[in-house]
Amino acid sequence: MRHPKMRVRVREVHVALKQSKYSKAASKYQIDDKLVIFETFMGRQYGDNPRAIYEYMLSDPRFSDFRYVWVLNDPDKVKEFPQLEKAGIVGLRSKGYYEAYAQAKYVITNSNLDYGIMKREGQIFLQTWHGTPLKKLRCDIEAQDGNALNSLEEIRSKNNLDVVRYDYFIAPSRFAAEKFASAFRLTALGMEKILIETGYPRNDLLYHFDEAFVREQKQKLGIPEDKKVILYAPTFRDNQHNGAGYVYDLALDFDRLRRELGDDYVILLRVHYFVARQFDFDQARGFVYDVSSLDDITPLYTIADLLITDYSSVFFDYANLRRPMIFYMYDRKEYADDIRGFYIDLDELPGPIVEREEDLIPAIRQAEETAALYRDKYEAFHKKYNPLDDGDASRRVAEILF
């Protein structure tokens, strides 16, 4: 393994090469004031906040003369999502990718941008990020080893390269704005003013769907109409990694869950996109549906009767629906002390914390009754962490940005 400082130097060489490709494109093209480029998780998905903003712009006649480009590593997504027919498609780090970034007046992303992309004078960059944080982020991480891929030194160095390009940074609440200011070093860099508290565009759907939409989503997945739906959406673990990327131990016996709950429930499994491991559910087929490859998680919230998660930010979004939640934190102490640590007191969570697998099935069976006990805590949680989510965040963001 390379020494951390050697890794930093190698990365700097790679960044310089990418910047050279971008500079060549920038020397050829002028900025197009009506061109917008969107990127979600470095081209992995058509989803999240960038998708919500894009689809809002398609619906608003004020943007009828705008042109759009999506960064997508799989160009066939156009067949799955007809909305993309209105956009050009470029692959990550392709020639067209650097050319599009060199020309776009507006850049909208929800994660790290390629470090070779340098902002030209006159361009406007929007960072939407992808969730209210429970676990500590970026420069707030205190674990001495950083994570499996980066040392603390590398985390801070990469952060500074990334954030200096942004003109706006979406925050869904005052709480999130404060944490982003610290984690991304916006305060230290004198950039706190780029934070805009608008709510999350991706959550607009949670205020506009109907029963017909729910039926359509279930039909797409082949879920029986007579079964209750559990969405299990754990996050990755920074210390679980192999040569191919992050891995994840589900820490659940799905065969047992099927035997105990299969008559009444199905499970939608949504693991973090970082996770490289493939899961085998042959024994639980028809009970467990692996939805990890779907581009957008938000429609899954609408069909889920119960959310089970751990430290993922998904529960902040799901809370908009006021439906039951269970927090399965089998490694709670290790995660808090040695991996990430938390921004909030776990006593604020609007649902029970389960630390042992044998306690999970009873918690699922009692979820609706238990939810009634958390009603007041649920409302306090929503008021603090989702005060701006009302179905109109995409419009607010668009009016600020454009």
Can you characterise this structure?
The chain has 402 residues and is of the alpha/beta class. Helices cover 36% and strands 15% of the residues. The protein contains 15 helices and 15 strands. The termini are far apart. 35% of the residues are buried.
Query: What low-confidence regions span 5 or more consecutive residues with pLDDT below 50?
Result: none
Question: What percentage of amino acids are in beta strands?
Answer: 15-25%
The name of the CATH superfamily of the largest domain reads CDP-glycerol glycerophosphotransferase, N-terminal domain
The CATH level-2 architecture of the largest domain is identified as 3-Layer(aba) Sandwich
Q: Largest sheet, order of strands side by side? A: 3-2-1-4-5-6-7
Q: Compute the number of helices.
A: 15
Helix/strand/pairing category: alpha/beta
- Rg is 21 Å
**What name does the CATH topology of the largest domain carry?**
Rossmann fold
Arithmetic mean of pLDDT: 90
- How many strands, which pairing sense, and closed or not: the largest β-sheet? 7 strands, parallel
Number of domains: 2
First-residue to last-residue Cα separation: 46 Å
- CATH class category name of the largest domain: Alpha Beta
Shape: globular
Percent range of helical residues: 25-40%
Order of helices and strands: HEHEHEHEEHEHEHEEEHEEHEHEHEHHHH
Number of strands: 15
Describe the secondary-structure layout.
Blueprint: H1 4-28, E1 32-39, H2 48-59, E2 67-71, H3 77-80, E3 87-90, H4 95-103, E4 104-109, E5 124-127, H5 152-163, E6 168-171, H6 174-183, E7 195-197, H7 211-221, E8 228-233, E9 241-242, E10 245-246, H8 254-261, E11 265-269, E12 288-290, H9 298-303, E13 306-309, H10 314-318, E14 325-328, H11 332-339, E15 353-354, H12 360-365, H13 367-373, H14 375-385, H15 393-401
Parallel strand pairs: 1-2, 1-4, 2-3, 4-5, 5-6, 6-7, 8-11, 8-13, 11-12, 13-14, 14-15
Antiparallel strand pairs: 9-10
Helix pairs in contact: 1-4, 2-15
